[in-house]
Amino acid sequence: xQTEQKPNNRRAVVYVRLSADDSTNPSFSPMxxxxxxxxxxxxxxDPISAVYKDINRSGANIERPGFLRLINDxxxxxxxxxxxxxxxxxxxxxxxLRMIRKLLEKDLGVEIVSxxxxxxxxxxxxxxxxxDWVVQESRKKQEQIHDLKKQDQxxxxxxPFGYKMSKKYKMFIPDGDKAVSIKEIFEQRDGGSTITExxxxxxxxxxxxxxxLQNKTYLxxxxxxxxxxxxxxxxxxxxETFKRCQKEKTKERTWKNNTPVKIELPKIPSS
Length: 271
Prior knowledge:
The chain is α/β, with parallel strands linked by helices.
């Protein structure tokens, strides 16, 4: 049972909404939403007299108990300002957003203040706000997709050389002869071959070989926003071999006019 403080006459309030889709994101927790709004209101000198909440309620439907109570109290002249974490807390539908703003701001004289920094200026045209809001929602959805992929250990990038994507299992799988080539590249490096020698053997450039030897995807990991986490795909290289191949080998040979030339390569970072 949700409990709410009873509002005083014409005071500032907070509206919190959490959908099932947002429940895995700590920043959308009811406690965090309320905290952000109260801190923002405090900076503006607006004491909060009530908190209206809708938990596990979709933003696609405005028929929400907490929101309807807020509207009812606003119609009674009990609310002057509503603080929200961001505009999607009110609704995820642009048409509904226009209707809500018209009802609260124009008809009832209630100011809506968003803590997300988009705008709390009523003079801003709704089409501008809507455009910004759509961009924000698109970015938010993309982040949620990436988060789900990370949790499910689903790769977020294209498969590197040696793997291909399995549409059925939604993970990388070894790509025949290319996977064999990856194993041979590591075996040669582990056996003492230089990057230049390996590049010549496999008819690849030095940078490609260098990147292959550093790629933890071959250890069975996925990279997400610069962070590596365990994936579901089959490793092509064991950890000990991978580590040995990361050892610094400063003197590498290249060729110029059919003559071997020593070059200095950058140090390969340790895993």
